[in-house]
Amino acid sequence: MYGENVSPNTASPPYVPAPGALLADTSRGDRVGEFRGVAGPYWSLRPVGGGREWEVEPRYVRPALLMEQLRARTARLNARSRGEVL
């Protein structure tokens, strides 16, 4: 019918952001992190100021709001000025 071996009900893969994009994890109280990559069915995020990465299901992630981005970047700069981050 379609001339291909693809089901018409097949969902396209979710949009994968560019590495370093700031995202908010809604399953953790809108915690903001940098997108690091895909790990199986999860996305890896890392705190903007450094720290341990965490994994989250893509359905719980949204682009960080401008205010959230500003807050995260300011926190990183403050940590850097204290010598906590390179």
The helix tally amounts to 1
Helix content, binned percent: 10-25%
Can you summarize the main beta sheet? 5 strands, antiparallel
Count the strands?
5
Based on secondary structure, the structural category is: alpha+beta
Note poorly predicted spans. none
Q: Which H/E pattern describes the elements?
A: EEEEEH
Report on this structure.
The protein has one helix spanning 66-81; strands spanning 22-25, 31-39, 42-47, 54-56, 61-63. With 86 residues, it is α+β, with helices and mostly antiparallel strands. A five-stranded antiparallel β-sheet has the order 4-3-2-1-5. A hairpin with a 6-residue loop joins strand 3 (42-47) and strand 4 (54-56). The longest helix has 16 residues, at 66-81. The chain is globular, with a radius of gyration of 17 Å. The termini are far apart. The relative contact order is 0.18. The mean pLDDT is 85.
Summarize the topology:
Elements: E1 22-25, E2 31-39, E3 42-47, E4 54-56, E5 61-63, H1 66-81
Antiparallel strand pairs: 1-2, 1-5, 2-3, 3-4
What's a quick, concise take on this entry?
Helix content is about 20%, strand content about 30%.
Main traits of this protein?
86 residues; 5 strands; alpha+beta
